Amino acid sequence: MTRSACAVLTALVLLIVPCSLSASVVEISGVPNYPQWEGCGPTAGGMIIGYWQSHGASGLIGGNGNNDWSSSNQSYIKSMIASSDHFYDYVGYGPGLDRLDVHPGGPPYHADNSLADFMWSSRLDAADGWSGEDMQSNVLLKGTPLETPIGMVAYARNLGYTNATGHYEYFGSLWVDFKKSIDAHQPVELFVTSTTSGVADHFVTAFGYNDATNQYECYEGDGTAAAWYDFQELAANKPFSIQSGAFFVAPEPATLSLLAFGGFATLMARARRRQR
Fold first, then answer.
1. In which domain, by residue range, is 263 found?
2. Which residues touch 190 (CB under 8 Å, ≥6 apart)?
3. Bridge-partner residues for 230, per DSSP?
4. 69 — phi, psi (to 5°)?
5. How many independent structural domains does the chain possess?
6. For position 125, what pLDDT does the model report?
7. What distances in angstroms separate CA 120 from CA 1, 11, 128, 212, 276, one per listed residue?
8. DSSP 158-213
9. In-domain check, residue 261
């Protein structure tokens, strides 16, 4: 090997090694940071919806579609998280399954139209903001099966994104699946403990990981800057340890169209070859 070839090879190694060392940190850019609005669950999910709004699924937020909290579209972002009649319909009508028609004197209940509705914070514990991504719209109401989609999926499908998918899983293999999701540019909602109690009581929006330190990066849902925490199973004296995670994907209509067009183009090309 010539000296010039060795020099080139050495330069390439020097370029590659730093990239390999820094590759342990993976972050998704473009995830909006919202302050808490009517519950941490809908707010955390709302940031994920806001992310997809600007990454292909542009019909998830009303108004002009802007997902920036500081923009003139803030009222529509709030409505996506928790609609204006969210509390009017539910607060003060007793804890639990308010929509079982056990309060006949109450106001008419509105149709589910926000994350707060589909995540049940509209009617858990007298609408005090508690929610659950694993609690699904209309579950246990009038015999509706339990297979209804998780909150973010139900919200997206309600707006016509019928191919929206998602799932909810407990800690187990969560680290592996979490990293796969972040690698695929898909933020994840994590259910954590915000205290030393070891009881899950808070949702955060996670969008990064550090493979070297086994940590995750998240917005805490209070409008403050992103923070890093150890990715560890829920336990006492470990604030922001994790019970579970909710995954969500809203397929981009443009991508689906391109796939369909690509399939059509392939068929046409084959037909032309046969004609020759």
1. 30-275
2. 203, 204, 205, 206, 216, 218, 242, 244, 245, 246
3. 215
4. -60, -35
5. 1
6. 43
7. 68, 57, 11, 37, 61
8. HTT-TT-EEEEEESTTHHHHHHHHHHTT--EEEEE-SSSS----EEEEEEEEETTT
9. yes
What is the reported pTM? Answer: 0.76
First to last CA, the chain: 51
Closest among 108, 84, 106 to 94, alpha carbons compared: 106
Beta strand ranges found along 28-171 (DSSP E) = 165-170
What three-state secondary structure class fits 19?
helix
Is residue 147 a part of any domain in this protein?
yes
CA distance 231 to 173: 12
Contact 210, 24 (CB under 8 A): yes
Q: Quick check: is 23 in a domain?
A: no
- 232 burial (CB, 10 Å; 0-12 / 13-18 / 19+) is middle
Burial of 109 (C-beta count, 10 Å sphere; 0-12/13-18/19+): middle
Spatial separation of the C-alpha atoms in residues 44 and 34, rounded to whole Å: 8
DSSP annotation string for 104-129: TTSPPPPPP-SHHHHTTTTTTTTTSS
Query: What average pLDDT does the segment 14-38 reach?
Result: 74
Q: Is residue 4 part of a domain?
A: no
**Residues 155 and 229: beta-carbon distance below 8 Å:** no
Question: Which of 31-35, 120-124, 151-155 reaches the highest mean pLDDT?
Answer: 31-35
